[in-house]
Task: structure prediction
Amino acid sequence: MKTKVLFVCLGNICRSPAAEAVLVHFLNLKKLENNFVVDSAGTGGWHVGRNADERMQAAALKRGIHITSKARQIALSDFDEFDFILTMDDSNLADVKALSQELGKPFKSKIKALMSFANKTDITEVPDPYYGGSSGFDEVLDLLEDAINGLLDHIKD
Ligand code: 4NP
Result:
């Protein structure tokens, strides 16, 4: 059985595609990629079909991480499909929980703030870097790497 992880942000062009790529990168390093399905989605649909923001791609490439996914919007079927649905900020978390309630099933245990797995910081949200300067993208990657390492430790246990 593969572990299926979906990362969710607002636009699916900055934070969640970066989270997807960071997890895939770590899994490749650990030779665990065949044990997982990894994807990302946005709560909004404005950027559907687009590549990730070029500033996010460039910041990730400096770390050897390739962001290749195309934006898509979260679908109701994702709640059945994935084992972990991990949101970037409190607003995403509320939106995703509200969406899951449309299905009338108890999906709450799958839906978590990604930063709840972080070990090196008390920051609880991955800030949206879209309207900020380039250092915001590096900060996002630092937060994602911390939380995704914690996520892998959690899954291993
Ligand atoms: P993301 O960032 O949620 O990390 O993909 C955003 C990208 C675009 C917009 C908002 C957030 N936007 O409003 O277009």
The pocket of 4-nitrophenyl phosphate is lined by residues 9-15, 42, 46, 128, 130 (CB under 6 Å). The radius of gyration is 14 Å.
